Amino acid sequence: MTTNWIVILGKAEVADGTVTYIPSPITEGPNIGQNAATLLRSNMDFESGEVTYEAHLNEPTSKCQVGLKSEEDGQLFAGLNVGTAGYGLSLLRNNKWEILNGAGSGNSVPTEEWISVKLRVLGSQIDLFVNEVKVCSTLQNISKGQVELMLLGSQEIKVRNIKATASTPKAFVVMQFTDTFNALYTDVIKPTCKKFGLEAIRADDIYKCDLMINDIARSIEEASVIIADVTTDNPNVFYEVGYAHGIKKATILLSDRTREKLPFDVSGFRTLFYDNTIGGKNDVEARLTTHLKNITA
Asked: How many CB atoms lie within 10 A of CB 179?
């Protein structure tokens, strides 16, 4: 698919895959005389994977950042000269900037050379790389949306080789490892997730040498949605559900109807109750489909 860019604010030229920022002084209002920021929007839909680009600055304080849609009703911007940091990540919400993380404060961003920038998004785990070096990270939930580009400076800025490479979003499934729950995972949850382009994984699908708790935390962070079966009072399950809620991860709770009462801390969350029968599994599949449709819309 051909990548198209439309200038939403400010001035820029797009030719042969290269975006060129044109400084444009503000002519009225409280910021008169300052250069206006330029915002471009592309036809590249993105939710999970990598966004890469190369930037060429003519002066060290120029801003060159990609923008992604955040679930926090705002835009995540990542790239060069964020706040007082040479490289960083920030959130624009209600016309206010919130710096999420940064690196390179007090150092000038290189000029008169092409700088390689990569933004990797896996679930809510977001990493920023500059010239293949990871400079900073943050946790932020990203929604599917079109990639944007924000440019600001007193001199011309060029951006080329802008690409968005999608990866398969994941659903991390939290449950006990017994035959009953294994069947629910294999027969219902995995195929239902697959219909929505989600790869369902559990902790026993992870084969790494790190501490298991680190692997699980990373898997929760890198997942787009958490599906947790809270039928049994399993401390591991509730720990993982609590961590998911703590980082505002979209979470779907399941429970067998044989459970009489949910713990107080999760009783207020919508839970899909099911019967452990063929008909019951069909019912939970249908209801899980509805929930995933709302989350992935």
From this structure: 6
